[in-house]
Specification:
Helix content is 3%, strand content 47%. It contains 1 helix and 34 strands. A hairpin with a 4-residue loop joins strand 1 and strand 2.
Length: 398
Amino acid sequence: MKPFFPRLAAALALAAALAGCATAPAGLAPPGRGSGDLGLVIERESGSVGVVDTSARTRLGTVEGLGDLSHASVVYARDGATAYVFGRDGALTKVNLLAGTIDKRVMQAGNSIGGAISTDGTLVVAQNYQPGGVKVFDARTLALLADIPAVVDGQPSRVVGLADIPRNRFIYALFDAGQIWIADLANPARPVLTKFTNIGKQPYDALVTPDGRHYIAGLFGEDGLAKIDLWAAEPKVERILPGYGRGEQPLPVFKMPHLRGWAVAGRHAWLPAIGRHEVLVVDTDTWQEVARIPVAGQPVFVMARPDGRQVWVNFAVPDYHVVQVIDTQTRRVTASLEPGKAVLHMEFTPRGDAVWISARDSHHVSVIDTQSFRTLAVLPAKSPSGIFFTSRAARTGF
């Protein structure tokens, strides 16, 4: 583990020695340092994460030893200073951002693609490809509290689209079984499951809308999406947007879009059309399509600036060096940027004054002003992918 602030740590140690006190632990951030403007950048090839300061637009340090991060995601504890990193190799790692250290690490599965944290911050849940199912951990100690297999008709299923919903419940989809389950973990030792069947073929990802009301799963095996109104007295699955993606003739898909990056701005959802060079605009009152916007390539992430005034889009190969900006009032592309080779992810600062963009093959992260589109900073990173800011700690479904 590399020390976090080496000069500061040395100064603290010297001061403690002169005062006749115990040496201060190496790597501690300055006393009183808050965590609200921090974040992590995944460095997928080196198995490390960079800790960044979004106010100063700087990189503070590196935490190493996180294993296979080729498909990694992060959730935060309520304090915003503790991150839980889910690695492709099945590892769950608890990282202290202020100290720049790994607090705890467990190998909980053979292949994992993400996780979530409970409403009250006491539970962390991992979704797994191998052996499938979800596992529930104590957020403080990472002790295993529950193992919930995803088995239908004797066959295990990969789990996707895991999201937290109110009252320490979690919702997720079973890719191989075509089902959606809700796990009520009010008592983690005795999970209560609600199962929705016949939702459609191969749900590949899902999201919860920002208000926590709707859970929407994309379907790779057929056109359309599955939606559940979680506020309904008796929730049920509804099919929406038939034919929204590949249409009557299936089109080649170079990279599956991530529904977690969908933009909900005002009363409209902005979403990637699978395989098409289009972003769809959907009325969230009726869940009907109201517009299609031509874009540079096959969209992967479609993300709204926090105020909903803009939507930013990145793309699959061969257009993954491009990022486009859509004005949500005119529904037109107003800017096309090229921040680097192989753009994989974007993350807005909490109030949307800037967006951070990872360019894997350029080995850097660009910080761009969302009004002028001027590049404010370029930070080095080893094959960066996901960017996760601590502001996610206060958001449902993140």
